[in-house]
Amino acid sequence: MRTKTLLLTAVVAAAGLASSMAQVYSVNVVGYVSTPLVAGQNALVSNPLNNGTNTLNDLVGSLPAKSSAQLWNGAGYTPSLKGASWSPNLAVPVGTGFFIKSTSTITNTFVGQVAGFTNPAPGYITSGQTTTNHVAGAINVLVGEAIPFTGTLNDTNVNLGTLPAKSSIQVWNGAGYTPSLKGATWSPNLPINPAQGFFLKPSSASVWVQTMP
């Protein structure tokens, strides 16, 4: 059985959040995730696709001069500033979240392949293929989906429900963070969108696996 991936057409919107609306589209394994950015507003995004190099110049190179990026290093943020190009040109692996602030309102389009997949003939991702994000325990990591599903924390495609109890998540709401705590399920059951970044703190070292349905 072969499926045309989640990347067919999904439009996600949440009023007032620059980083919470994304359009995802594709006809095969190569996909596109478009994320609107509002001038002067911090957006918490993530790299949803593997473009081969996964650096700021290739992921968000279309942003105007004086835009800025902040990558979490485990204790604070490593900054980068856009001139003719990003300096420093930081690496952003698939499934990594980062803050971005554009100096003008623009739609950034991430282009690439779903992480962990090659191009199976005739160009479709087959059902049951998986990708994995290893997350350490008891520390904050800034992450995003490695397969860009639209869903919620408890959704089986997003698959964060497999993380252990007492894990926590902080989702950026444009001005601060909305928290969720894992018991038997995540509460509140927050929405998760393609190319959205969020802080994740597993209560123990975990393997976050997403699978193509």
Overview in brief:
This protein is mainly β and 213 residues long. It has one helix at residues 56-59; strands at residues 9-12, 22-25, 30-37, 42-46, 68-72, 77-82, 86-87, 97-101, 106-113, 130-135, 141-143, 151-152, 168-172, 177-182, 186-187, 191-192, 198-201, 206-211. The chain folds into 2 domains: 9-113, Jelly Rolls (Sandwich); 130-211.
Order of helices and strands: EEEEHEEEEEEEEEEEEEE
- Total strand count, please? 18
Please tell me the total number of domains: 2
Backbone shape: globular
Largest sheet: 5 strands, antiparallel
CATH topology tier name of the largest domain:
Jelly Rolls
Low-confidence stretches: 1-21, 23-29, 118-124
- CATH-level-2 architecture of the largest domain: Sandwich
Look at the structure and give the CATH class of the largest domain: Mainly Beta
Sheet with the most strands: spatial strand order: 4-8-5-6-7
User: What structural category do the secondary elements indicate?
Assistant: mainly beta
User: What is the C-alpha radius of gyration, as a whole number of Å?
Assistant: 16 Å
Distance between the termini: 10 Å
Helicity range of the residues? under 10%
Task: Indicate the proportion of strand residues.
Answer: 35-45%
Number of helices: 1
Q: What is the overall pLDDT average?
A: 83
